[in-house]
């Protein structure tokens, strides 16, 4: 049979963020003889390995190439409208974005181009300021009228993007940011191997995986690690990812005299092994929906110290510590030390039981698509 093609629309460049991680986890595990994905962004593809994998799985990538950061809203709306104009093989469009505006205007553009099934998907929270409140108000009607389905990675992410009456009447659906528990799992031999190969034996290894962006709050993380280093001289900080804030973070590390204790690993394909090598994952983000990287860490039995800007819906609360950023770096350093003392254990059964195994989540998403097409 010819598979039905679902258009995955991104309101940002295709890169290595949580949105991409989520949809690729689903794509790898759906029945691709029945459902296929195509990807569209009006911006650029900043992760060529991602594009190559999509194409190897049978998908297509369409990127209009507009530089991100220059009149994003206008080019998103115009780019998607232009792409959907004419004869396209899509009856389902699934829109992903951290932007409330992109979700609302993307849904409006798709429905006006005759797409019968339009999904908007909230993956994060944001800063509660005047700009957010104005955009939320202006987007309220479009998010009420145009989407036929509203998905979110957590209840917090839904509340952040969708109008209050829709939340009150539960007119949205939470789809878990699930991970492959056959890949992300505690492996003591792999842990020993990586710690030996990377010179981490005998060190307390603090990890962070995520793009270098203001949202992720790397500067607070560096201040916290500086405080930790005062009481734990063996501590090392491993930063995985890249992004626009990386140079500023490197300068901060240098200014604090931490260059021999902080390692920048860049974008990696061996994150499951690194999670095993870490002693604790620290996520001081200003906001998140439900971070995929947090689920990946917990799947490997790794304790997580997270800010209260992150939803309290991470799937293993027994190994998750939430701290307000207002507590400051010294209190965070103490929380990291305490979390790192937790004995490592296999959490695979817990993740599966709580619906965070990717095979279960992919089957749920596939069923949702098939009910539409």
- C-alpha geometry: globular
Distance between the termini: 14 Å
- How can the largest sheet be summarized? 7 strands, parallel
* Total E-strand runs: 13
Fraction in helix: 40-55%
Strand order in the sheet with the most strands: 3-2-1-4-5-6-7
Mean pLDDT: 95
Give the structural class.
Answer: alpha/beta
Q: Secondary-structure element order, as H and E? A: EHEHEHEHEHEHHEHEHEHEHEHEEHHH
- Uncertain segments: none
**Rounded Rg:** 21 Å
Number of helices: 15
Approximately what portion of the residues adopt beta-strand conformation? 15-25%
Word description of this protein:
With 373 residues, the protein is α/β, with parallel strands linked by helices. The protein has helices at residues 18-29, 48-56, 72-84, 100-112, 130-145, 155-161, 164-168, 188-197, 218-231, 246-255, 271-277, 292-299, 328-340, 348-353, 358-372; strands at 4-10, 35-41, 60-63, 92-97, 117-122, 149-152, 173-174, 205-209, 236-240, 262-266, 280-283, 304-307, 320-323. The strands form two sheets. A seven-stranded parallel beta sheet has the order 3-2-1-4-5-6-7, with helices on both faces. α2 links the parallel β2 (35-41) and β3. α1 packs across α15 (358-372), α8 crosses α11 and α9 (218-231) crosses α13 (328-340). The protein is globular, with a radius of gyration of 21 Å. The model has no long low-confidence stretch (mean pLDDT 95).
